[in-house]
Request: fold
Amino acid sequence: MGERVLVTGGSGFIGSLLVEALLERGAEVHCLVRTPPRSAGYLSLVWPSVRAHYADLTDSHAVQKAVDAARPEAVAHLAAVGVQDVRVDPVWAVQVNVVGTLNLLLALQGRYRVFVNAGTCLEYGSNDPPFREDQDPRPVLPYAITKTAAWRFCCRFHHTEGWPIVTVRPFGVYGPRQPATAFIPLCIRAAQRGQDFHMSPGEQTRDWVYVSDVVDGFLRAMSVPQAVGGTFNLCSGLETTFYDLAQAIVAQMGNCIAIHRGSQPYRDGEIRRLVGDNRRAQAILGGQ
Reply:
């Protein structure tokens, strides 16, 4: 039997692909979920091979019960709210992203080989890009603020209690199972339907990274001993504007639609440049 791994957020975009990758590697995968199998999202594809534990992260007693049952040797903590919603209720985000993370860490009490905390590139906020892990976070959006608070607690428990914790910060993740409301799926769907694509001026930039590469980053963070205690950008180091990306997508699909640049406003709180420095990940995680 392989290593016991507990995954939170396993029914989501990145989480479900991580669960599948862990199963392919022979891990005994335990998932913390809130809902029965029929509502487990993409996790339903591998449900017979997964050991499910039902708990809401905000319920400390339920989380403790799930942890005691799973007895994980490794943990991948991806569950969060507000990833796609810049207007997420801040109180709810604090309850899930901060209190939920604390409930999980306190239930585990460091009794594991490694805990991988999923952060976000949005924690860098108003810093000057390219973003480096040694920059102090300057989050602006509620989601990013709460993820930064969770990261601070992870750092605190690592330094004061010696708990083996690693944080990874994915950048512009795209690929299969990405939410349909994200920019790339919206552009692809417009081209498929022959509908002109309406967008902002598109001058903001992102560091786009394919989801399978991000999953590989999680796996490396879980397996490289030297990663413990560190924070790592999962990014390409390349910067592309939204408009250039839209042009590339439409060109690949035969230039079948027009792009109406500037017909939509920028989103509230839009960060204009999000590009990361991946040298630390390359050096320690062995990324490409």
Summary: The mean pLDDT is 95.
